[in-house]
Amino acid sequence: MIDLDVVASTAATASAAWAAMPPRERARALVAAADALTPAQEELVRIAREETGLTEARLNGELMRTAVQLRMFADVVVDGGYLDVRIDEADTEFVLGVRPDLRRYRQPVGPVLNFAASNFPFAFSVAGGDTASALAAGCAVIVKGHPGHPRLSLGTVEIVTAALEGSGAPSGILQLVAGQQTGIDLLNDPRIAAGSFTGSTRIGRMLANIAAARPVPIPFYGELGSVNPVFVTRAALDERAEEIADEFVTSVSGSAGQLCTKPGFLFAPAAEGFAELIASRVAASEHRLLNPSIAGGYRERRDTILATPGVETIVEGSLRLDNEAQGWATPTIVRVSAGDLIAQRDRLLDEAFGPLSVIVEYEGEESLVALVDELFDGNLTGTVHAGRDEDSSALRSLIAWIAGHAGRVLFGGWPTGVAVTSAQQHGGPWPATTNDTGTSVGGTAISRFLRPVAYQSVPQRLLPEPLRDDNPWHVPQQRAAAGESRSWGESYRSV
C-alpha cells in the first residue's frame, strides 16, 4: 500500500532542491532522460502495442516526440527567457516619487500532479509534455498513471527516473501512482501546487472543481473535449475536392479517430458528389480502440448520432466488441444539413471520440459565422480550406471567428498533428481546456508551472541568482535604468 503522505513529502523536498539547481544542470538531466528512452524503444513500444492497440509506426513516432520534447525543454531552461526577468533600478528622480529597486522573475510553483492520458501513452503520459514542462520549470512531478497502460507507465518511469537521478536530480523528482481515488487524494494534498490533465470533459471538470474547492485553490490545466470544426469554401472544393476528401479521411481515421484534434465536423457547401468522393476513400480495415471504456463511450455516441433525425449515413462503418468489451472499429461518416444540425444540436454536438465525423452542408459562406457562432463553444483548433487566391469579407470573418473560439487557426491543413515547437498553442476556450491562457505543447507550456515574484530593495547577496547583477545563470535580464520615466510616451512622436 503506497503512503501518499510520503509521496507528497518526497515531492515537496525534491521540488525545492530541483528548483535551486543551475539551469545547465537541470537541462543535463532532461537530456539524459531523453537519451535513456531510445535504447529502450523496442521494448517500450512492444508493451505499448499490447496495452493500447496503437500501431508500431505511430508508437515509434510518439516515443521520438517524447524524447524531442525533453530535449527542447532543456534548451528552454538554458536560454532562461521563460523566467521573464525584469529589473527596475532604484530611481530617486522617478516621476511619481522615489522608486525602489524592484526585481521580478517567475519561479517554480512546487510539486505538480499530472493525470496521464490514455490516447498518447508516451507523449501525454509519464514522460510526456506536461511532465517535461513541469520538470523544466523546476517542479517535482507526481504522475497518476492511466489504467489503460499500467505496465508501460511503470517501465517508463523506471527508465526516466534512473536517468534523471543519475544526472544529479534529487531523489523523488518523478514519482508514479495509480488509482482514481489516489489521484483525488493527492489533488487535495496541500503540498501539491498545480495539476494537469488530458482526458474527458466529465472527469476533467470534476478534477478542476476539486482543485478550485480546496482551502487554498491551485491552478489546474485540463485538456478536455474538442470537435475541431473544418470549413471548406466553394472555391476550395472547385479547385481540389479529391485532395480535400483524401486528407479528411486520413485525419478522421488516423489512430482510429482517438485524437483530441480529430476533425469532428466538416462544413462544406452542398455539392453533387463530394460526400460520395469521401465515401470512396474510407478503408474498411478495423482498428482496435484503446480500451473497453473508450469503446463503450464511442458506441454510445455513434448509436446516438446514427439514430438522429436528419442524419444521412455516408459510410456506416462498424464497431465490434469482444467478450471483454474491447472494441474494433472502422470509420463512420454521416451527413446533415445546417438546419438539421441546429435542430438536433443536443444530440449531435458532443465529441465522438473515435473514427466518426459529421459533414455539414451549408448554403452560403456569408452565413457561416452566424451558423457556427450559435453552435460551438471553445475548441483546440479551427481549420479553413479556401481557394488559392480567395479573399472576401466572409472568409476574413470566419478566420476571425476561429481565432476567438480556438487556440490554433489552420489554413489549408488538418488539425491532427501538433508540432512540438516554441510557437505552438495547444489549448483553447472552454471546454477545450480549463484554462485557455496556457498550452500543453510547445516551449511556452513551461509557463503554467511558474508564478511571478518581485523582490524590492533586497541586497545582492540575498537575491535569487537570475535577479543578481552578476547574473550567474546568464539569463536574459530586461532592465529599466534610472531616469527613463521622464521620457515615457515620447517614442511615438518620432514615428
From TrEMBL:
It holds the Pfam family Aldedh. The keyword Oxidoreductase applies. Transmembrane segments: none annotated. Residues 465-495 are annotated as: Disordered. Residues 5-384 form the Aldehyde dehydrogenase domain. Keywords: Oxidoreductase. GO terms for molecular function: oxidoreductase activity, acting on the aldehyde or oxo group of donors, NAD or NADP as acceptor. Signal peptide: none annotated. It comes from the Bacteria. PANTHER family: ALDEHYDE DEHYDROGENASE-RELATED (PTHR43353:SF3), SUCCINATE-SEMIALDEHYDE DEHYDROGENASE, MITOCHONDRIAL (PTHR43353). This is Aldehyde dehydrogenase (NADP(+)). The lineage of its organism: Bacteria, Bacillati, Actinomycetota, Actinomycetes, Micrococcales.
